Amino acid sequence: MSQQITTISFFKYTTFKSKLWGFKMMQFAHKDLVNVEGQSFYRLMGSGKGLGFNPLPDWSIYCLLQVWDSENEANHFFSSTDLVKRYQENTSELVTLFMRNISAGGTWVNKTPFEKGIELNPLQPVAIITRATIKFSWLLRFWKYVPTSQEPLLENKGLIYTKGIGEVPIVQMATFSLWKDFESVKAFAYKSKQHQEAIKRTRKYNWYKEELFARFHPYKSLGTWNGEQLL
Question: In 3-state terms, what secondary structure has residue 18?
Fold first, then answer.
């Protein structure tokens, strides 16, 4: 199995000054991120209002996804780099999840970033990342159906946290969701009529130019979110 791990970090800003700083870092952080040792892939993303998909931006929360050759490189980055220290100084909360990939399909900016690193354990927490580039001609129909498709997601008691994220608002969107176990995932994915209908519509209308679906086992977290540990 691969030694690769993936980390996902969420940054929260509460004041106007800090939100402005977070917005500017969407441009200026790249110079520090592009050549990080041991990092094979990264995406710096904004988020949508509320939970799940939302086309309206949430100026208080940003996200950083990183793929690492091993945990050692990730530990070094989060414990000793100036970039992380600056984020810590300007955020009201910063949480990072360390994850091993269970399975992945599709591409992200024409790359396949995630290598299989562990087998599924249905009793452990599961994290899921979905990402898509939506065809321009289908944007209106896609976003019109989103609220209906997400209703059972937010009602699922096994959902720990979810957030809509993305590189380009409205067009390039992703979701991150964290679940207490695989049974909770299956209850949403296979028993939800709305979710099944969303899958049928995706296949029928071919909404996406590019898409990716990946499952992970998160095994370690740094920091808190809403005053609590995510794991």
Answer: helix
- Helix and strand tally (H, E) in the chain? 7, 8
Low-confidence residues in the chain, pLDDT < 70: 51-54, 135-155, 169-171, 189-208
Residue 9 one-letter amino acid: S
48: DSSP letter: B
What tokens were used for 61? 């929360």
CA distance 141 to 175: 19
Architecture of domain 5-221: 2-Layer Sandwich (3.30)
Q: What is the domain partition of the chain in residue ranges? A: 5-221
Coil/strand/helix, residue 4 = coil
What angle do helix axes 193-205 and 182-191 make, rounded to 10 degrees? 60
Question: Phi and psi at residue 75, in whole multiples of 5°?
Answer: -60, -40
What is the secondary structure of 63-87 as a DSSP string?
EEEEEESSHHHHHHHHHH-HHHHHH
- Tokens (6 digits) for 183: 């049974």
pTM of model > 0.85: yes
